[in-house]
Amino acid sequence: MHEEPEDVAAEETLAAPPEVRFSVQDVNDIATRRGWLVDHAMVDNESFPIHVWFARALTLLGPKSPTLDHLESLLSLVFHYDAAANLALPENRSVLVRTGAREVIRVLANSILDDGGISDSDRFKSIIDSIKAAVPFRSRVIFHPLRLALAGRTGEGELDRVILLLDPASKLPFSVKVKDTRERMLEFCAALD
Length: 193
Prior knowledge:
The chain is built from eleven helices and no strands. By secondary structure, it is mainly alpha-helical. The protein has one domain. Helix 1 runs antiparallel to helix 8, helix 4 packs across helix 10 (158-170) and helix 7 (101-115) crosses helix 9 (140-151).
């Protein structure tokens, strides 16, 4: 069963916190080891924007990550995006030949390029609703191309959570440039043709 973006919004507002398996320090350690941080000391202050982003990343991705390696794999999707390389993979190309995939990409691109990126789960839900209104498809026909275009691979609802982290991360002083949803959409459409 696919996790819909509506589920993400609902989960973010639940009163009971999910099981804590990892800490912000774990996210910090991953970012340091992978070379994503400019200055490790900048994260020590809990009010610093990168620390706040790490905490949000942990809230969104931690419950969906059974292992620290899996958490690192999801985080890497935020910091590394290469549309041409992603589209060269046979499993990703097969998504684009499915009925409706190109229509979903077109509506997604128009939504992001005309109305801005994805700042929160409400905006993401709005984009999903506009896609559903424009195309006669549901479920994986919508979500697989969307996740491929923005997260760089197909998969389950955990990738929707990665997408929610992109635009906020793009505004932070990481040592690598994080491509926001608009940049990813432009790169994806250019690589698609």
